[in-house]
Specification:
This protein is an alpha+beta fold. The chain has four helices and five strands, in the order βββββαααα. It has helices at 57-71, 79-90, 96-117, 121-125, and strands at residues 10-17, 21-22, 29-30, 34-40, 45-50. The chain starts with 9 loop residues before the first strand and ends in a 20-residue tail after the last helix.
């Protein structure tokens, strides 16, 4: 399925690290988030997000940049060629920062693949997607009320 979609050549990556902040009523606080936008040479954009731990955001952003340099050399990038390159680059070692960086890129590549095929992600992952998917929403707070 989506693993064989030709994404093409990548041209650019942009990274944003949000600020941590407390809500106006001081009920909750958020950590920093890392968002990325990858653009292909054809102008298709894909968005991704990386999990981060406090004080590790810049390290993850650096890994994203270095990984992007490596995968942007692939002329006909697909998800399979991305997975193969990442497997080679990790050289048997993986850690949370590396995994966070690769997941952000992978999410962006799936976003691009969906846009290229004009299909939602669930249709890229299976030939028989469920028409309805249950969702769960929560509001978490680290403060007692």
């Amino acid at each position: 399925m989506g693993k064989e979609i030709n994404i093409g050549k990548l041209s650019n990556v942009k990274i944003w690290i949000t600020n941590a902040h407390k809500s106006k009523d001081n009920w909750s606080k958020t950590k920093k988030f890392i968002f990325i936008k990858i653009t292909t040479t054809d102008g298709v954009e894909g968005w991704g997000e990386a999990f981060s731990i406090h004080l590790r955001e810049k390290a993850i952003a650096t890994i994203i940049i270095e990984l992007f340099k490596e995968i942007s050399e692939i002329k006909n990038l697909s998800l399979n060629s991305f997975y193969n390159k990442i497997f080679f680059l990790r050289d048997g070692h993986g850690g949370l920062d590396f995994s966070s960086a690769t997941s952000a890129i992978e999410i962006a590549l799936w976003d691009i693949a969906g846009k290229l095929k004009n299909l939602p992600l669930n249709c890229l992952l299976t030939d028989n997607p469920k028409p309805d998917v249950s969702i769960y929403a929560t509001c978490w707070s680290d403060l007692k009320r």
